[in-house]
Amino acid sequence: MAESKRNRKRKLKISSEVELPKGVTADFDGQKLTIRGPKGEVQRLMGKQITAKVEGNKIIFESGRDTKDNKSVLGSLTAHVRNIVRGVVENHNYTLKICSGHFPMTVTVSDNKLHVKNFLGEKVPRVLPLKQGAAVKVDGALIHVSSASKELAGQVSGDIEQLTRRPGFDNRVFQDGIYIINKDGKELK
User: Fold this and answer.
1) Number of Cα atoms under 13 Å in the Cβ half of residue 71
2) What number of other Cβ atoms are within 10 A of residue 82's Cβ?
3) Which residues pair with 51 in a beta bridge?
4) At how many degrees (to 10) do helices 150-163 and 68-89 cross?
5) What is the pLDDT of residues 81-111, one digit of tens each?
6) Among 140, 120, 117, 118, which residue's Cα sits nearest to residue 128?
7) Highest mean pLDDT: which of 10-24, 65-79, 126-140?
8) 143 CB contacts (<8 Å, ≥6 apart)?
9) How many other CB atoms are there within 10 angstroms of residue 163's CB atom?
10) Please, which pLDDT band fits residue 6 given cuts at 50, 70 and 90?
11) Residue 124 burial (C-beta neighbours within 10 Å; 0-12, 13-18, 19+)
């Protein structure tokens, strides 16, 4: 008898909801969740085990069964959607610092590409094609990356940092490069 109660309890649906602020709309078409706001639009593919409904100014996520795996997926998805909602209201911003001690480095953005010239005296510039949806601006010794998607802003910032990576060299001695100093409001040491 006790086992049947446990099985009945396991089959309960679990749900979570995210409230949308004014000026933000959401659409769900089976597998893709689209959230639009004043700063942009972000799309997110949903997993098969989670369903979503948009009712008024709320997005409701439901899972068919109350399992540990479904709870973790539901919690992660809710956190991602909260970040998306925050991003379409106010962009996610990352800041990178250009450090050039030995050779003066020139960093420019043109034609949706980031060009790094004279990195450690190299004759050929290093070029990074930028992803759509992220705005990159060079301001003196700082590079500002902003996007409605936190994942996209972080990926573009990481790509820029990796562009000037030098494996096999001691970072304490060879400090030239471009480094992330602010991740969406969090200062890095």
Assistant:
1) 6
2) 13
3) 62
4) 80
5) 999 999 999 999 999 999 988 789 999 999 9
6) 117
7) 126-140
8) 95, 96, 97, 98, 107, 136, 137, 160, 178
9) 16
10) low
11) exposed
Of 85, 25, 77, 84, nearest to 56 by C-alpha is 25
Q: Beta strands 186-187 and 177-183: pairing type?
A: antiparallel
Query: What does the alpha-carbon distance between residue 154 and residue 94 come to, in Å, rounded to a whole number?
Result: 7
Chain segment 115-145, per-residue pLDDT in tens: 999 998 999 999 999 999 999 999 999 999 9
- As a whole number of Å, the end-to-end CA separation of the chain is 58
Nearest to 131 by CA among 106, 166, 107, 158: 158
Q: Token digits for 184? A: 């969406």
- In order, the DSSP letters of the chain are -HHHHHHHHHT--EEEEEEPPTT-EEEE-SSEEEEEETTEEEEEEPPTTEEEEEETTEEEEEESS--HHHHHHHHHHHHHHHHHHHHHHS-EEEEEEEE-SSS--EEEEETTEEEEESGGG-SSPEEEEPPTTEEEEEETTEEEEEES-HHHHHHHHHHHHHHT--TTS-TTT---EEEEEEETTEEP-
Can you tell me the distance from the alpha carbon of 9 to that of 3, in angstroms, rounded to the nearest whole number? 10
Res. 175 pLDDT band, cuts 50 70 90: confident
Q: Are strands 126-129 and 14-19 parallel, antiparallel or unpaired?
A: unpaired
Q: What pLDDT does 73 receive?
A: 87
